[in-house]
Hints:
Helices cover 70% and strands 3% of the residues. It contains eleven helices and four strands, in the order ββααααββααααααα. The relative contact order is 0.21.
Amino acid sequence: MIELFGIPLSAMMSQLLLGLVNGSFYAILSLGLAVIFGLLNVINFAHGALYMMGAFLAWMGTYYFNLNYWVMLLVAPLLVGLFGIIIEKSMLRWLYKLDHLYGLLLTFGLTLMLEGLFRSVYGVSGQPYSVPELLTGATSMGFMMLPNYRMWVVVASLAVCFGTWFVIEKTKLGAYLRAGTENPKMVEAFGINVPLMVTLTYGFGAALAAFAGVLAAPVIQVSPLMGSNLIIVVFAVVVIGGMGSIAGSIITGLVLGVIEGFTRVFYPELSATVVFIIMAIVLLIRPAGLFGKEK
């Protein structure tokens, strides 16, 4: 048996895989947060609840309506995105000119309401969600068995993250979005409906959270608390990468997931706090984050 530092290679690679899976969730969730903060200047604490809603909608679609995983992978983000649009049009748009704290308090209150609603109906024990038949089983890598579904999670997350980064950073639409946050009146002079653009941006950020929730549903039990258990770590990822940095959120999420996985191998007691230790060190050295812009 091949060993590194006295630890079997298969154990290290399995933790690397687990780290990549967790990092994929961190990346796609922190991406949604970064999009909303970077383009709308809102700290969206409801992101974890939207993630939970995506997972629950996938479960409900299968349990009540016999809709398969692939249908819900499209439908759940669309429904949560529409819900996000309603939130933005009815509540958030009145807070843009106020301090960040007001948006944070509003979205935190929404989180408590949504979690309370789902807890009252489904409890906190969690609901199982099966892996789609196409992705059951595992592929042999020689030194370990690689679960097909976890491989799909990594690939799908990377594809969505890269696609989002490309649209925002490299296309004319992305240029309009960035310009609309800096000088909305100038963008409106070109005939662009900036309020609609802002609304759709929040809806897209909400849809990203729901997409991550559907991906997570077969990996962990669907529970009303699944978002609150993850959102604090995701906020730490966003802070480390730089608030509002799209590329920073993606890269930092993946790297921190891998670091967390390896920490479980070498020092398991530290794995739950290693992200926050890194955050403290980064903030001491570079308060704007690794990829953030210094003011």
